[in-house]
TrEMBL record:
PANTHER family: INDOLEPYRUVATE OXIDOREDUCTASE SUBUNIT IORB (PTHR43854:SF1)
Name used for this protein in its record: Indolepyruvate ferredoxin oxidoreductase beta subunit
Domain Pyruvate/ketoisovalerate oxidoreductase catalytic: 11-187
GO-annotated molecular function: oxidoreductase activity, acting on the aldehyde or oxo group of donors
InterPro entries, alphabetized: IorB_Oxidoreductase, Pyrv/ketoisovalerate_OxRed_cat, Pyrv_flavodox_OxRed_cen
Family annotation (NCBIfam families): PRK06853.1-5
Top-level taxon: Bacteria
Source organism per UniProt: Aminicella lysinilytica
Pfam families named among the record's database cross-references: POR
Highest classification ranks of the organism: Bacteria, Bacillati, Bacillota, Clostridia, Peptostreptococcales
Sorted UniProt keywords: Oxidoreductase, Pyruvate
Length: 190
C-alpha cells in the first residue's frame, strides 16, 4: 500500500531539507520512494511544497486531491491552502507560525484569523510551536527538524536510524542542535 505525505511551507523554512531527509530514511528502510517538489518563488517567501509517496511500489510522485495521509505544514496559512489534498481521516501536523505575505506587509490584506481552530475542527491536528522550540534550543533554523521529528512519530517511522541520516546529510556544525530538535518534535506526539 502506498502512503502519501505532503510537506508545505514558505521559501526559506527548510521544507526541502526535511523532505530529503525523510526520503533518504524511507529509502534506507527498503521502501520505494518518490518525491516531487514545487518551489513557487521560494526565494521571495513564496509557497513551497513537497510530495512524498512511499510503499512497495510507487509509480508516480504526485499526490492528487484527497490522497495525502498526512500534511506537515511549516506555516499556518499554507496548512489551510493545502487542506484539499488531505484524505478523509488524514492528519495534520502544523507549526504555529505565521509569515505574512507581501500584500499583508503592505497593508492590502490581513492575515486570516482562526485558521488553527478551523482546521482542528475538521481533522485530527497536532499544533506544534516548532519555531519557538527551535529558538529555545538556540537554533531557530532547526524548526524544520522539529517538524520532521513529529512527522516521524506520527507515521510510526521511529525504527529508522535518523541520527545516522542527519549525521550523513546535514552540516556537522548543526548536527547536535538538529538531533535535539528532532527529539523535541518526537516528544510532542508522545
Amino acid at each position: 500500500m502506498t502512503k502519501s505525505i505532503l510537506l508545505v511551507g514558505v521559501g526559506g523554512q527548510g521544507t526541502i531539507l526535511a523532505s530529503k531527509l525523510l526520503t533518504i530514511g524511507l529509502g534506507q528502510e527498503g521502501y520505494d520512494v518518490k518525491m516531487s517538489e514545487i518551489h513557487g518563488m521560494s526565494q521571495r517567501g513564496g509557497s513551497v511544497s513537497t510530495q512524498i509517496r512511499f510503499g512497495e511500489q510507487v509509480n508516480a510522485p504526485v499526490i492528487g486531491l484527497g490522497e495525502a495521509e498526512l500534511i506537515v505544514a511549516f506555516e499556518e496559512e499554507e496548512t489551510y491552502r493545502w487542506m484539499k489534498y488531505l484524505k478523509p481521516g488524514g492528519k495534520v501536523v502544523m507549526n504555529k507560525f505565521r509569515i505574512p505575505s507581501s500584500p499583508m506587509l503592505t497593508g492590502d490584506e490581513v492575515y486570516p484569523e482562526g485558521l488553527i481552530d478551523e482546521i482542528s475542527a475538521k481533522v485530527e491536528t497536532t499544533v506544534i510551536p516548532a519555531s519557538e522550540e527551535a529558538a529555545k534550543l538556540g537554533s531557530p533554523q532547526s524548526m524544520n527538524i522539529v517538524l520532521l521529528g513529529a512527522l516521524v512519530k506520527a507515521m510510526g517511522l521511529t525504527d529508522i536510524d535518523w541520527e545516522k541520516i542527519m549525521k550523513e546529510n546535514t552540516k556537522p556544525a548543526f548536527l547536535e542542535k538538529n538531533l535535539q530538535a528532532f527529539r523535541v518534535g518526537m516528544d510532542y506526539l508522545a
